[in-house]
Write a structure and sequence with these properties.
The chain has 4 helices and 6 strands. By secondary structure, the chain is an alpha/beta fold. The N and C termini lie close together (10 Å).
């Protein structure tokens, strides 16, 4: 269920990706950190079930209070199946979260080239034109 795919410029993408929230207490920070860590584990489990090699993706370990889990993924993995799988995690306590994927060509080669960003929401995706073209390629050119 990829839902709607919005293709935007890099500048618009940067603006919509700036949401943050204030954590009111140390307890709130600990709860947020636990949620973030739990979502990361769920994503890791999904990637493992896909048979994705650890050299083709990784999680950014830093976190910010913005309900976003950041990943770097090789372009060869970007497909409707991957996005749908990640969207299946964005329910319940994660319904308002985002999985931000920075897409790279040749991620495991040591000479990776950044293609662009892809935000996965519960019912839509937002990406740049460059990533949209990778998305189409990952679906064998089939309509999304």
């Amino acid at each position: 269920m990829v839902g709607k795919i919005e293709v935007v410029t890099q500048q618009v993408f940067a603006l919509i990706s700036q949401q943050t929230e204030t954590l009111e207490s140390k307890e709130g920070e600990l709860r947020y950190e636990a949620l973030d860590r739990s979502l990361m584990q769920e994503i890791s489990n999904k990637m493992g079930r896909f048979g994705v090699q650890e050299t083709d993706w990784h999680s950014i370990e830093d976190w910010w209070p913005n309900r976003t889990r950041f990943l770097e993924v090789d372009a060869s993995l970007v497909s409707t199946d991957l996005v749908t799988s990640l969207q299946s995690l964005l329910v319940g306590q994660y319904g308002s979260w985002i999985v931000n994927i920075n897409v790279y060509e040749g991620l495991s080669s040591g000479a990776a080239v950044h293609i662009g960003p892809l935000n996965v929401y519960a019912s839509k995706c937002v990406c740049t034109k460059e990533v949209f073209l990778i998305f189409e390629r990952g679906n064998g050119g089939r309509p999304l």
